[in-house]
């Protein structure tokens, strides 16, 4: 069974670009929802000071993340004038292709650091247990 991949990135929102970032987040979420039915979760957050954007995604496997990077690439570029990428944290076992794509994305959006975290222990309940009534 493929291991899910958890993705978290953080970016600084450029001065005066908050409204454009919010519009871009909604556009990107709608775009991804319509084209990537395999994606388990895809969320954008803005902190209380409205200066930091965080993206959280859960992919069922590395192939899902690779597809996401290919489809979303042109959309990600639009954020280049709106944000400065600080970091990308990846939890799981993405392919070398995905890691290369993430490095390119980080560089394109401001040079953030990409960090890979490998699973040591734990479990996921992606499908809740069924009652045996």
Account of the 3D structure:
It is built from three helices and five strands. The protein starts with a strand and ends in a 16-residue tail after the last strand. 35% of the residues lie in helices and 28% in strands. A five-stranded mixed sheet has the order 2-3-1-4-5. A hairpin with a 5-residue loop joins strand 2 and strand 3 (52-59). The chain is an alpha+beta fold. The longest helix has 18 residues, at 18-35. The chain has a single domain (5-117), classed as Alpha-Beta Plaits (2-Layer Sandwich).
In short:
This protein is an alpha+beta fold and 133 residues long. It has a single domain (5-117), classed as Alpha-Beta Plaits (2-Layer Sandwich), CATH 3.30.70. The protein is 35% helix and 28% strand.
Number of domains: 1
Counting copies of identical and different chains, the oligomeric state is single chain
The largest pleated sheet is described as: 5 strands, mixed
In total, how many beta strands?
A: 5
- Strand fraction equals 25-35%
Uncertain segments are none
- Largest sheet: spatial strand order: 2-3-1-4-5
CATH structural architecture = 2-Layer Sandwich
Decide which structural class fits the backbone.
alpha+beta
The Rg value, from CA coordinates, equals 15 Å
Return the CATH topology: Alpha-Beta Plaits
CATH class: Alpha Beta
Helix content: 25-40%
Distance between the termini: 28 Å
Q: Strand-and-helix sequence, N→C?
A: EHEEHEHE
- Overall geometry comes to globular
Number of helices: 3
Q: Could you report the average pLDDT, rounded to the nearest whole number? A: 92
């Amino acid at each position: 069974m493929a291991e899910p991949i958890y993705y978290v990135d953080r970016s600084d929102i450029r001065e005066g670009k908050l409204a454009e970032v919010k519009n871009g987040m909604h556009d990107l979420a709608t775009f991804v929802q319509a084209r990537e039915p395999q994606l388990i979760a895809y969320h954008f957050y803005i902190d209380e000071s409205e200066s930091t954007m965080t993206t959280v995604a859960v992919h069922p496997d590395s192939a899902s993340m690779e597809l996401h990077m290919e489809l979303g690439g042109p959309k990600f570029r639009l954020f280049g004038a709106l944000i400065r990428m600080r970091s990308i944290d990846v939890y799981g076992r993405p392919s070398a292709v995905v890691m290369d794509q993430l490095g390119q994305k980080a560089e394109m959006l401001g040079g953030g650091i990409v960090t890979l975290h490998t699973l040591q222990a734990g479990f996921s309940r992606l499908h809740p247990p069924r009652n045996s009534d």
